[in-house]
Design goal:
142 residues, alpha+beta, Trna Endonuclease, Chain: A, domain 1, four-stranded mixed beta sheet, two-stranded antiparallel ribbon, 5 helices
């Protein structure tokens, strides 16, 4: 089973090879403080709880990607923060996608590259509905 870090690495490497003309358009959001003191410092520096792992800014679109490892389990509150943050992005005209599937994440990215907003909206809606359905328990499994 691949870790979230491994999946993120594969996506970033794929993107840099597949779309070199968009160098710098896909970037990481560092959102993993090592302790409470570090978290307070990072929040003072602009870190936002729930922000997505990767941001893609291309063709005037802001696409936020939250990566999950297959079979991973997360506390419902953690997923709620991430989902609420993503819904905020959507309400401001951006796109949000949470998945453990590398191929679906690549499809989401490629849809942004060709500015297929219909595909982005469809994937985003299915993602949000799917995650909300998983949040009925105290833990959320992907």
């Amino acid at each position: 089973m691949k870790s979230e870090d491994r999946i993120q690495h594969e996506i970033v490497m794929w993107f840099s090879q597949e779309h070199p003309q968009f160098n710098g358009a896909l970037f990481e959001i560092y959102n993993n403080p090592v302790n409470q003191k570090h978290a307070l410092h990072r929040r003072a520096m602009g870190m936002v709880k729930g922000a997505s792992d990767l941001i893609l800014h291309v063709n005037g679109l802001m696409c936020c990607i939250e990566i999950k490892a297959p079979e991973s389990t997360h506390k419902r509150d953690h997923i709620k923060y991430q989902l609420d943050w993503g819904k905020g992005i959507v309400s401001r005209g951006g796109y949000f996608f949470m998945s453990q599937d590398i191929e679906l994440i690549k499809l989401f990215i490629n849809s942004a590259i060709i500015k297929n907003t219909e595909a982005l909206e469809s994937m985003q809606t299915a993602c949000i509905i799917g995650v909300e359905q998983k949040m009925i328990n105290k833990t959320v499994k992907f």
